[in-house]
């Protein structure tokens, strides 16, 4: 079987363009104009303790302080994020319902045929918040220490090895499907209902390999339970500067940056959107915010609303190609 490498150049360029954040914050004028005194809901489509939830709880008090407007975090998990996204899509675009979300949610139509919304058209992008690094890891009992050894190990047992994920469409799942195609290995996907369940079986040795977020991976590695092989981002990450990227480790052009963004329901007025855009850039420009993000494994990045929309479209196109080649169809 011939394995084609999915093209990621457009996506790379867009993420690179989002780039670094200006050190000086821009002034915000008339912060509370366009909003009533009602609190702004930051609605999170994932469970408490996930990275989107942590980001929202980190940003809420900072947004509140700058806009003199109450911001509250509300979790609405379920159906791989579809429940929370549906609630935002159906909310009025008056600035009182916003969402912090992860990049994989744009892939929901690739897995679920009957959604009440379109991730690319039912929402108004506001701006990037940041990106994180996922890591290819193996259980400590697996006799490999490098990516090249991992490829040889996987190729020697086609169809006999398993990898875990918290479910369809997660970065744990998508990164492995992309890697499988790029290096030509056959590993069986075992989806779990939650990351904690997947990690428990992986740490227990029932699953030999998987992708996981760098902060989680570092914690398990310090306990001597797993071995870190390489990260998904092209650049090395501050939390693990000694960890090579997959591209450096021999899988040329592999570059996946799971990103997080702020979104509103489609139809938000231009003035209100501009105020949210400026407010988010100000908050992300604060050194304290960038430091707090780094502690939870996120590199702060900002973008215009237009650029976030382009990044989301490129993300959707990338994973569409990967899933089509994997033979995965919406149900």
Question: If you had to describe this structure to a student in words, what would you say it looks like?
Answer:
It is a single chain. This protein folds into two domains: 9-132 and 257-326, D-Maltodextrin-Binding Protein, domain 2 (3-Layer(aba) Sandwich); 134-231, Periplasmic binding protein-like II (D-Maltodextrin-Binding Protein, domain 2, 3-Layer(aba) Sandwich), CATH 3.40.190.10. Helix content is 37%, strand content 19%. Mean pLDDT is 90; it is low at 1-5 and 20-32. The two termini are 26 Å apart. α1 runs antiparallel to α10 and α5 packs across α10. With 331 residues, the chain is of the alpha/beta class. The longest helix is centred in the C-terminal third of the chain and has 22 residues, at 305-326.
Proportion of strand residues = 15-25%
The helix/strand series, from N terminus to C terminus, equals HEHEHEEEHEHEHEHEEHHEH
- Kindly, what is the distance between the CA atoms of the first and last residues, rounded to a whole number of angstroms? 26 Å
Q: So, the CATH homologous superfamily of the largest domain?
A: Bordetella uptake gene, domain 1
CATH class of the largest domain: Alpha Beta
Overall pLDDT confidence: 90
CATH topology type of the largest domain: D-Maltodextrin-Binding Protein, domain 2
> Level of helix content?
25-40%
- Multimerization state: single chain
Give the number of DSSP strands.
11
Rg calc: 20 Å
Shape: globular
Summarize this, please?
This protein is α/β, with parallel strands linked by helices. It contains ten helices and eleven strands.
């Amino acid at each position: 079987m011939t394995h084609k490498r999915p093209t990621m150049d457009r996506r790379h360029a867009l993420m690179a363009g989002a780039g670094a954040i200006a050190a000086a914050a821009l002034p915000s004028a008339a912060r509370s104009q366009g909003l009533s005194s009602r609190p702004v809901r930051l609605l999170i489509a994932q469970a408490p303790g996930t990275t989107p939830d942590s980001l929202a709880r980190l940003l809420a008090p900072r947004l509140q302080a700058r806009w003199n407007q109450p911001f509250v975090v509300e979790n609405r998990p379920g159906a791989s994020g579809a429940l929370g996204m549906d609630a935002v899509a159906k909310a009025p675009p008056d600035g009182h319902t916003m969402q912090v979300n992860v990049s994989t949610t744009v892939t929901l139509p690739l897995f679920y045929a009957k959604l009440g919304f379109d991730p690319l058209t039912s929402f108004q992008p506001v701006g990037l918040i940041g990106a994180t690094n996922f890591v290819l890891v193996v259980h400590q009992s697996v006799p490999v220490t490098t990516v090249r050894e991992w490829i040889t190990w996987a190729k020697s047992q086609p169809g006999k090895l398993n990898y875990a994920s918290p479910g369809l469409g997660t970065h744990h799942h998508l990164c492995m499907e992309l890697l499988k195609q790029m290096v030509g290995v056959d590993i069986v996907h075992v989806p779990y209902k939650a990351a904690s369940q997947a990690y428990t079986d992986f740490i227990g040795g029932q699953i030999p390999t998987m992708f996981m977020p760098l902060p989680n991976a570092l914690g398990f590695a310090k306990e001597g339970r797993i071995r870190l092989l390489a990260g998904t981002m092209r650049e090395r990450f501050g939390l693990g500067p000694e960890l090579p990227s997959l591209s450096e480790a021999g899988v040329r052009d592999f570059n996946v940056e799971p990103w997080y963004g702020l979104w509103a329901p489609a139809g938000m007025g231009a003035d209100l959107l501009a105020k949210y855009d400026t407010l988010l850039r100000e908050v992300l420009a604060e050194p304290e915010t960038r430091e707090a993000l780094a502690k939870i494994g996120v590199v702060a990045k900002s973008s215009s609303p237009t650029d976030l929309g382009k990044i989301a479209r490129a993300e959707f196109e990338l994973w569409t190609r990967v899933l089509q080649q994997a033979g995965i169809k919406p149900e």
